[in-house]
């Protein structure tokens, strides 16, 4: 069975459906048996839900030009590849 630390490392991938079968079942089993990890998982889900509910803020009007200028300055630095 997975440890709490192992579950904490992969619980987000579990939530997103990115774990292979055996790992997915190991996480599910651990969550069934561990109140602390189950609470952590619920908190992650709650935060993710709140973040998804937030409207996306539009970028600053000059953000693209400022980023391009910084990239170009970096590119033109001596020793840059």
Overview of the molecule:
It is a single chain. By secondary structure, the protein is mainly alpha-helical. The protein has a domain at 4-56. Helix content is 70%, strand content 0%. The protein has four helices and no strands. It has helices spanning 4-15, 21-33, 35-53, 63-75. Helix 2 packs across helix 3 (35-53). The protein is elongated. The chain starts with a helix and ends in a 6-residue tail after the last helix. The model has no long low-confidence stretch (mean pLDDT 91).
The termini sit apart by: 47 Å
What Rg, in angstroms, do the CA atoms define? 21 Å
Stretches where pLDDT falls below 50 for ≥5 residues? none
Helix content: over 70%
The SSE order reads HHHH
Give the total of beta strands. Answer: 0
Structural class: mainly alpha
> What proportion strand?
under 5%
Shape: elongated
Please, how many helices? 4
Question: Which features characterize this protein?
Answer:
single chain, 81 residues, mainly alpha, 4 helices, 70% helix, elongated
Question: What is the compact description of this entry?
Answer:
The chain is mainly alpha-helical and 81 residues long. Helices cover 70% and strands 0% of the residues. The chain has a domain at 4-56.
């Amino acid at each position: 069975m997975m440890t709490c630390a192992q579950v904490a490392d992969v619980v987000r991938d579990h939530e997103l459906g990115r774990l292979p079968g055996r790992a997915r079942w190991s996480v599910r089993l651990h969550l069934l048996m561990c109140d602390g990890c189950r609470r952590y998982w619920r908190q992650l889900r709650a935060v993710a839900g709140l973040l998804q509910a937030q409207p996306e803020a539009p970028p600053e009007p000059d953000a693209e030009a400022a980023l391009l200028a910084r990239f170009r300055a970096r590119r033109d630095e001596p020793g840059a590849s």
